[in-house]
Amino acid sequence: MTKLQTPDNNNLLLSIVDLIDNARNKVALAVNSELTLLYWNIGKQINDEILKNNRADYGKKIILELSQELTNKYGVGFSKKNIHNFVKFNELYTDIQIVYSLRTQLTWTHIRQLIYIEDGLKREFYIQMCIHERWSVRTLQGRIEKHAF
Amino acid sequence: MKNLEIQNTDNLLLSIVDLIDNARNRVSLTINSELTLLYWNIGKQINEDILKNSRADYGKNIVAELSNELIERYGSGFNKRNLQSFIKFYAVYQDVEILHTVCAKLAWSHIRQLIYIEDGLKREFYIQMCIHEHWSVRTLQGRIESMLFERTAISKKPEQTIINDLKILENEKQISPDLTFRDPYFLDFLGLHDTYSEKDLESAILFNLQNFITEMGTEFAFLARQKRIIIDNEDYKIDLLFFHRGLNRLIAIDLKLDKFRAAYKGQMELYLRWLEHNEMKEWENKPIGLILCSEKSPEQINYLQLDNDENIKVSEYLTKLPEKKILEEKLQKAIALARQTVNN
Question: Which residues are CB-neighbours of B25 under 8 A, at least 6 positions away?
Answer without folding.
Answer: B177
